[in-house]
Amino acid sequence: MADVLSVGVNLEAFAQAISAIQALRSSVSRVFDCLKDGMRNKETLEGREKAFIAHFQDNLHSVTRDLNELERLSNLVGKPSENHPLHNSGLLSLDPVQDKTPLYSQLLQAYKWSNKLQYHAGLASGLLNQQSLKRSANQMGVSAKRRPKAQPTTLVLPPQYVDDVISRIDRMFPEMSIHLSRPNGTSAMLLVTLGKVLRVIVVMRSLFIDRTIVKGYNENVYTEDGKLDIWSKSNYQVFQKVTDHATTALLHYQLPQMPDVVVRSFMTWLRSYIKLFQAPCQRCGKFLQDGLPPTWRDFRTLEAFHDTCRQ
């Protein structure tokens, strides 16, 4: 009984009002049925008209009676009490200036977007896990008889482990030399020299590649104080194109569970530029297009394409 009083609603009158609504709907339906049926079951026209008018008036009186009863019961139902224990959340809808501080509507919108983001993130995670083993370049004849060792799951890998991975990759490609340095602590920086074609500065965080800068073989890759220059771009447009493609490759080769596979796949893809100025485009067959050689390398087949021919 205390709950009924706190709510402020007469539950008995509320139940009677629901019954009155049902009765009103029935009486209104009878009015329309009467209009639909029209004048029937009388021999003369005058008799049919009188019977129709009488029946129609009775139905209208029923509608008026049920409507008055519903209005009477609605006054007896009462109003809900506004003193519900909403705590601080009840103040959100009482924002006096909706145009300037629409906090309540923004929170509702943020909640909807959060649910959508969580749902789509779950779908994307499932799809990426299914395709994770396909996101690696061909090993170009490198034997893979042994399974890779179990990798550490933490993002911060010991420097000795990083050095071991880089040295093994360095031994895989005789025409590619990798020089590792740590000028700023534990983070490694690689200077990759690919034959006499180009040099690549690879900035790493633990065993994860952060960014790359590709320059020509004869270009200076050091600053005035003798450190690797990780900010200056190449002076040649062809190596600027290769830098952009290398950034795209970093986004493609992503496998956080096995970071050494990512580095090895990226280096395999980078090794395909050993014939940057010798391989023709696989689509148009030309060596030069707009004064540039085919700078794009396919992530799976490592075939050469011009930037405009790869679509």
From TrEMBL:
This is Mediator of RNA polymerase II transcription subunit 27. One of its GO terms (biological process) is regulation of transcription by RNA polymerase II. Component of the Mediator complex, which is composed of MED1, MED4, MED6, MED7, MED8, MED9, MED10, MED11, MED12, MED13, MED13L, MED14, MED15, MED16, MED17, MED18, MED19, MED20, MED21, MED22, MED23, MED24, MED25, MED26, MED27, MED29, MED30, MED31, CCNC, CDK8 and CDC2L6/CDK11. The MED12, MED13, CCNC and CDK8 subunits form a distinct module termed the CDK8 module. Mediator containing the CDK8 module is less active than Mediator lacking this module in supporting transcriptional activation. Keywords: Nucleus, Transcription, Transcription regulation. The keyword Magnesium does not apply. InterPro entries: Mediator_Med27 (IPR021627). It is found in: Nucleus. GO terms for cellular component: core mediator complex; cytosol; mediator complex; nucleolus; nucleoplasm. It comes from Sciurus vulgaris (Eurasian red squirrel). One of its GO terms (molecular function) is transcription coactivator activity. Belongs to the Mediator complex subunit 27 family.
